[in-house]
Design brief:
This protein is mainly α and about 280 residues long. It has 14 helices and no strands. The protein is globular.
Length: about 280
């Protein structure tokens, strides 16, 4: 029995290690490549570690005004999407999680079904909406369209989280004279902090990494986001050998590192937020 248990633990550890390498290796390769010279990037045979590490690619990226402006645009869009998602999602989740009314389950499943559609399937309709509202090539267009995939997730997670709050807390607040608004603002929101951190961070990451809508709704360089800016590094080249891969890798590392840091800092709240609705009571 001991040998069998040891074998199972070894097999499980091997699977986890394999998944970890599979998930981490692309980012690690980008980090290593960002320190290679252009000659080393195309050297044959390929070497993993750079012989002469250089900061040249980072210096060129940080000296690129278009990229820096795109980073500011991404911060503005991602923060606005996160705030709007949390504001609307928290109110909707409070109603769906704490009140019972006819059609509640249907509303929840409709919200969940919105996450099943690929972005390309709704692109045409969103393009028409953006044109009608006069938002084409304006950053609010991205805030509006990104809510299509951040808001349903926010509502679904926060609903499960608020459902897990013991009803006795709500009843005690009502007995003390709390109004529904007081109940929401002073009791439910503080208790939903892990869920708010989880959904807010994941909404920020989703908006920060999005590319399809940014390509479709933004036309001029001053309205680009960071993903669009990184893609534009190769827009004027005619062959793969002319693409500034070093700068693209450096830019990717600069864009990804803050997200990794945020995920590490808030990892406990993210886990508790995602698992909050698993057990009620």
């Amino acid at each position: 029995m001991k040998a069998r248990a040891t074998a199972r633990r070894f097999a499980f550890g091997a699977v986890v290690l394999g998944l970890l390498v599979y998930l981490v290796f692309p980012f690690l390769w980008a980090v290593v490549s960002s320190f290679k010279t252009n000659a080393e990037l195309f050297a044959t045979p390929t070497r993993f570690w750079p012989e002469r590490p250089t900061l040249e690619h980072y210096q060129k990226v940080l000296a690129n005004d278009d990229f820096l402006h795109a980073a500011v645009n991404s911060v503005l869009v991602a923060c606005s999407v996160t705030l709007v998602s949390l504001a609307i999602g928290a109110l909707a989740a409070f109603a769906l999680g704490r009140y019972r009314f006819r059609g509640r389950s249907a509303v929840l499943y409709v919200i969940l079904s919105m996450t099943l559609f690929p972005q390309i399937a709704v692109l045409g309709a969103l393009f028409q909406l953006v044109n009608v509202l006069g938002l084409y090539n304006r950053l609010p267009a991205l805030t509006l369209t990104y809510l299509v995939f951040t808001l349903p997730f926010t509502i679904w997670v926060l609903t499960g989280f608020l459902e897990a709050v013991p009803v006795e807390i709500e009843e005690a607040a009502i007995m003390d004279g709390a109004t529904p608004l007081d109940l929401f603002a002073k009791i439910m929101l503080p208790l939903a902090a892990p869920g708010m951190v989880t959904t807010g961070l994941l909404s920020f990451i989703a908006a920060w990494n999005e590319l399809l809508f940014a390509l479709s709704f933004m036309q001029t360089p001053d309205k680009r986001t960071v993903t669009h800016a990184i893609l534009s590094f190769s827009a004027t080249t005619s062959s793969a050998f002319e693409v500034p891969w070093g700068q693209m890798m450096a830019a990717s590392v600069l864009v990804t590192t803050p997200l990794v840091a945020l995920a590490l800092v808030f990892q406990r709240r993210i886990i508790s937020g995602l698992t909050a609705g698993a057990v009620k009571g």
